[in-house]
Amino acid sequence: MVEIFKTDISTEKEAKKVKRKLENLFPDYKINFDLEDCDNILRLENNYIDISLVISVLTEHKIEWLGD
């Protein structure tokens, strides 16, 4: 399963901070940001993705997002 979120993250520093938080919560997920994409994509891959918890983390970091 792959979930893609458009985000307002624009710096590597912020992306790394959020990625570390997500990796701590979801060690089995493959997580990456594509900040070169115009939508600053957050991509998550795993057999199951807890979307509500991912959204909670994004909200906690005051990240604007829009699911795919």
Strand order of the largest sheet: 2-3-1-4
Low-pLDDT segments: none
Shape: globular
Count of DSSP strands: 4
Provide the residue-averaged pLDDT. 91
Main structural class: alpha+beta
- The tally of domains stands at 1
The major beta sheet can be summarized as:
4 strands, antiparallel
CATH structural fold name: Alpha-Beta Plaits
Q: Give me the Rg, rounded.
A: 11 Å
| CATH top-level class | Alpha Beta
> Helix count?
2
* CATH A-level architecture: 2-Layer Sandwich
Helical residues, percent: 25-40%
Protein name: Methyltransferase type 11
Which SSEs are present, and which pair or pack?
Elements: E1 2-7, H1 12-25, E2 30-34, E3 41-45, H2 51-60, E4 65-67
Antiparallel strand pairs: 1-3, 1-4, 2-3
Write up what this structure looks like.
By secondary structure, the chain is an alpha+beta fold. It has a single domain (2-67), classed as 2-Layer Sandwich (Alpha-Beta Plaits). It has two helices and four strands. It has helices at residues 12-25, 51-60, and strands at 2-7, 30-34, 41-45, 65-67. Strands 2-3-1-4 form a four-stranded antiparallel β-sheet, with helices on one face. The longest helix has 14 residues, at 12-25. The radius of gyration is 11 Å and the shape is globular. The mean pLDDT is 91. This is Methyltransferase type 11. It comes from Neotamlana sedimentorum.
